[in-house]
Known about the structure:
Layout: H1 4-13, H2 17-37, H3 43-82, H4 85-90, H5 99-118, H6 122-146, E1 154-155, E2 169-170, H7 172-193, H8 197-220, E3 224-226, E4 232-233, E5 245-248, H9 255-275
Amino acid sequence: MRSWTAVLDDLLISLPAAGRLAVIAAVILLMAFIARKKRLLTSGGTAAAAVLGIVIFYTGGVSGFVMLLFFFLSSSIAGRLLSSGTAERIAAKGNERDMMQVVANGLPAALSLMLFRLSAFPDIFLAAFAAALAEAEADTFAGEIGRLSRRDPVSVVTFTRVPKGLSGGVTVLGLAASAAASAAVGLLFMGTFGCSFSSFLAVTAAGFLGALLDSFLGATVQVQYRRKDGSLTEKAYDEDGRRNERARGIAMIDNDMVNLISGLFSVSIASVLVLL
């Protein structure tokens, strides 16, 4: 039985190219406008989301758009409902996603869909697209749900306690949420694109492993700073404008760069698993 998104895909494809692009642009721009009004995106984030959204909708059809919409809405709602003052004080950015955050999370998925249309191995890159979204979803929910844990997270490298909200820390609750979120994207992949169960497993595994890599990079190479009170943060500047001292990590590798690397890693893992 064909999915409802596949039926809508057929209707969309039946339109002339110009008409199809006009419909897609109108839907994406409307969604971007609403996201901006709801303060889910900054101005730069809105522009980036519109461009990536049009690319994903045009190359992935209604099925690709539904998967992107699921990730964006679920991660945004989780960020709003589960944000904490402590985490916001540590994290470099707030709940409004800026241009770099949107690109870091959306570019691997968009590139995968473009290769899906151009490559002689479409199944590989279609799974890679889903894996990129699964990794972003898994990473988001690992952090947001993990903050609900009664105990502070532990570093994935040293296994010592670290403050909630600091990259590189994990909790049992966060890991479980990460696996569940990745599986949810995998299930949606089955329901929209009609992928096989083996592809579902590949997407779920790649998304979860990518989120683990995100934590590992956060604990090793991601830049972290020390405030004047001695606490660690991911913000280069304090609220009063004072520049914080770099405590560890590589200056150019911030959370956005880590997210991009992790997304590309998941794309690679899913491609290999499907190929095998």
